[in-house]
Specification:
The complex is a heterodimer of chains A (359) and B (713). Chain A is mostly beta strands and 359 residues long. Chain A has one domain: YVTN repeat-like/Quinoprotein amine dehydrogenase (Methylamine Dehydrogenase, Chain H, 7 Propeller), CATH 2.130.10.10. Helices cover 0% and strands 48% of the residues of chain A. Chain A is built from no helices and 30 strands. In chain A, strands 3-30-29-28 form a four-stranded antiparallel beta sheet, with no helix packed on it. Chain A has a four-stranded antiparallel beta sheet with strand order 4-5-6-7, with no helix packed on it. In chain A, β29 and β30 form a beta hairpin. Chain B is α+β, with helices and mostly antiparallel strands. Chain B has five domains: 93 residues, RRM (RNA recognition motif) domain (Alpha-Beta Plaits); 110 residues, no CATH class; 133 residues, YVTN repeat-like/Quinoprotein amine dehydrogenase (Methylamine Dehydrogenase, Chain H); 150 residues, Methylamine Dehydrogenase, Chain H; 28 residues. Chain B is built from eight helices and 43 strands. In chain B, the strands form eleven sheets. In chain B, strands 18, 19, 20, 21 and 22 form a five-stranded antiparallel beta sheet that branches. Chain B has a four-stranded antiparallel beta sheet with strand order 2-3-1-6, with helices on one face. Chain B has a four-stranded antiparallel beta sheet with strand order 9-8-7-43, with no helix packed on it. The longest helix of chain B has 47 residues. Chain B is extended. Chain B starts with a helix and ends in a 35-residue tail after the last helix. In chain B, 26% of the residues are buried. About 3% of the residues of chain B have low confidence. The chains are: A mainly beta (359), B alpha+beta (713). Chains A and B meet through loops of A and α7 and α8 of B. Chain B: Its main location: cytoplasm. Chain B: One of its GO terms (biological process) is formation of cytoplasmic translation initiation complex. Chain B: This is Eukaryotic translation initiation factor 3 subunit B.
Amino acid sequence: MTMECVNPEGLRLDVRQIQNSSHQTLETRMTPILMKGHERPLTFLRYNRDGDLLFSCAKDHTPTLWLAHNGERLGTYRGHNGAVSCCDVSRDSSRLITGSADQTAKLWDVKSGKQLFTFNFGSSARSVDFSVGDHLAVITTDHFMGVSSAIHVKRIAEDPQDQVGDSVLVLQSPDGKKKINRAVWGPLNQTIVSGGEDTVIRIWDTETGKLLKQSDVEVGHKEAITSLCKAADDSHFLTGSHDKTAKACLWDMRSLTLIKSYTTVVPVNAVAMSPLLNHVVLGGGQDASAVTTTDHRAGKFEAKFYDTILEEEIGGVKGHFGPINALAFNPDGKSFSSGGEDGYVRLHHFDSNYFNIKI
Amino acid sequence: MEVVDIDARAAKLGINWSQVNFDSIQLPPGEDFGIESDDEAVYHDDQSEFDTGFGNIIVVDHLPVVPKEKFEKLEGVVKKIYNQLGVIKENGLWMPVDPDTKMTLGYCFIEFNTPQEAQNAKEKSHGYKLDKSHIFAVNMFDDFDRLMNVREEWEPPQARPYVPGENLQKWLTDDKARDQLVIRSGPDTEVYWNDARQKKPEPVHKRPYWTESYVQWSPLGTYLVTLHKQGAAVWGGADTFTRLMRYQHSMVKLVDFSPGEKYLVTYHSQEPSNPRDASKVEIKVFDVRTGRMMRDFKGSADEFSIGGPGGVAGASWPVFRWAGGKDDKYFAKLSKNTISVYETETFSLIDKKSMKVDNVVDICWSPTDSILSLFVPEQGGGNQPAKVALVQIPSKVELRQKNLFSVSDCKMYWQSSGEYLAVKVDRYTKTKKSTYSGFELFRIKERDIPIEVLELDNKNDKIIAFAWEPKGHRFAVIHGDQPRPDVSFYSMKTTQNTGRVSKLATLKAKQANALFWSPTGKYIILAGLKGFNGQLEFFNVDELETMATAEHFMATDIEWDPTGRYVATAVTSVHEMENGFTIWSFNGIVIYRILKDHFFQLAWRPRPPSFLTAEKEEEIAKNLKKYSKKYEAEDQDVSLLLSEQDREKRKALKDEWEKWVMQWKALHEEEKLARQNLRDGEVSDVEEDEYEAKEVEFEDLIDVTEEIVQESM
């Protein structure tokens, strides 16, 4: 197992804390841990429940496992033959599921790195999510060669020997030509929440497969939904979108009521919610193909922190050389990591000043 | 009637179709036996015949009445005149003659090949002076019926009751003394109050698709002009913006006001179908208040520009430059080797002729007086020196001129109160391979207009920008090499030295390429636009100190409000990202930022000049403390109110959020058992509630001292 942990001197970054009423600027410094293990842009980051492991997915074919406190690389999961777009880890940190553009989703043994099972699809697997209890997984697939995009529910067997590839339920998106970028389980596995390129958030009934609710075009996103992240207690979730105002919206998971929205100036690729404080983080930046060569500041490759309740920006963390594609909070809320188009994962431990931010 | 019926009928009558010669049958004229012809061409022909009419015939009146002997001569003269304006049809000129006296009747009819030619001939020759007593009156023949119907008796027009207009200056009476600004973004045009105290703009009026290209304030701020396919319109009024007047000019492209906003100049140019031709230009001058067109100018673009490089594409705007001052008396046009100065009483050339100035390339009015400065470059390979001259209008007397040698280019800069003229002169070095710059400074208001030559400390420095302090005696220059040029300040008079220009300071290595003086002087923004990404330095020239440095990333435009209290910096849609504007205080503190996608334009509403005399203004400045108390108190009130509102709003938001959280917690609790079952009986929720943010306040006792206060007896 190779160890690679880069912590270069001199690479410092600032969390701006704008004290709103008095226009005072407080600065705290924290040195990120720069984790260099992927050769291609990052796509997804995931902490396990204990917060000691961090899984990263990238467009290279190997999901990687890191120690969450110091960025030490523990190992890789070899077997995929295409960009890996998403992963999820079971509650007891024993199983990993990954979705890839090689038209498969794979189950892995976290500890040994062994492949346990491969689900084959006719098109790329875009997102994966374990249910409460880890007996089910929801996998979304893209449209490809006449196969329209769909949401598949698979049963995950206790013993990998018993695992079968059959879908328990298949949900077809009304517009099969549009990608479903993310689908996650609702409370008590009774619903599935999905969002994608057709800008609509849908809630499906997992018993009947019926569409229960969908977001109103007026209040919802105007462009492709790129990311969706749910709260620890499954009560609400946050979506990020490419709409021109580059919005992220906070919704109630049961009623699909829009509660808050956060506006930034660049397309949002990734969103995360702090489990500890009332903070949300948005990451994104100019589209990789539109990045100009004039000034790296023009792209705004910043992870921006917002106050959840007041919807006001409180600061930003710079550092990536390209758009931010993935964000994740450690379940303890004391660190977070970001993955960029530049192929780096940056792991930030908050310093004490962060916890004393006041607006 | 069906074909079958016809055949049956024919058989009954014993007609053999094959023996009938259809061509020999002649119907009586106008008779169609109730059968309509399906040949549409028949109708069409009739129609077109009807259309031709007499549209290509004009009637020329007020010709001399001549006897038979002179008939041919007169005919020759008329033919000669009108052959220049269009092609007269063969035998197209008819001059009726009195059958008794054999004298002409003093008018004639001329038929042109096309109605367009006739229209053109009518426009061009109407009012043509053949001699003193014969001024042509030309009309279209088709207009005759209309003209004949004019009643013989004159009826006095009905006096309409006076309707008091809206107070067009009402925005100046705002009790918070705020300024207005207009912005265009996407399809919307919006006017706002700049409410710096509330740290946000307050909407005044918003209208989608208000204009089809851009909007512009009149120079004194009374009107907002919008452009449309049909022409221009001005808007204004007491409370909202209502349309006050329209000016018909189809496909208008550009507009310009006279400085006193009496007249509006509109411009339209048409691209030629043949790219080698010059484009056609039409310019109209309107009276703003009545909407009447005072004069129009038509011609090819060549007549409205000096040609040469850059002049081919079209005229440079504004074509007509207005003389300074509020009375809007003169306007001038520069064309090849000529300066045409018009006066607005008759809208004709002064002394009926243009000024001939060989090779003139630039003219510039004094902002306050009717003095025109002009620049003529070197000619004859340097045998004839370049010249800068000041000409008094309307007398056309040359007040002062200066010859300049080995000059490559000149730029003229007037100071806003017309006291000084700075001419930036680029001269060739001896090798003629490069140029260096210097200034010629004219003191207009002094006797004989003395000229002073100013050279920069380092003669080889390139001059990047130059700007006069409005109403002041100072100017700023950015000079040196990119990317870190120097900025120097000069004064035309200092306390020690009233008659000579002297340098105040040089700031080394600044990231700046543009200068923006506050309209009241004293403060200046050194801005690095475009290549410098929007670096801003707010500088106090009185104290020669930097008040603040800031950055509005990628800023493209900077504009001071008319009072010099606030500055707007904007990123317009030339950049894709971060369109919008920021309002700063004069000393570089951000007041608020507004982001707008597809942001096109921002313009402050100008204010008319103050009626206060300079002495009065000085007195107010001296006793500022007395006046400012009231406003400071107001500021305090507003900020208290604001923070109060803010607190309440935050509290409401927090409460609302708490409600959601409570609801979620309750539901979470409710579902606890179900979740436990899903997890095969694992009791697991505990951890999720483990962390909770709590605000803890603590006090530190740092030091305790006791002091004994002595009671005085």
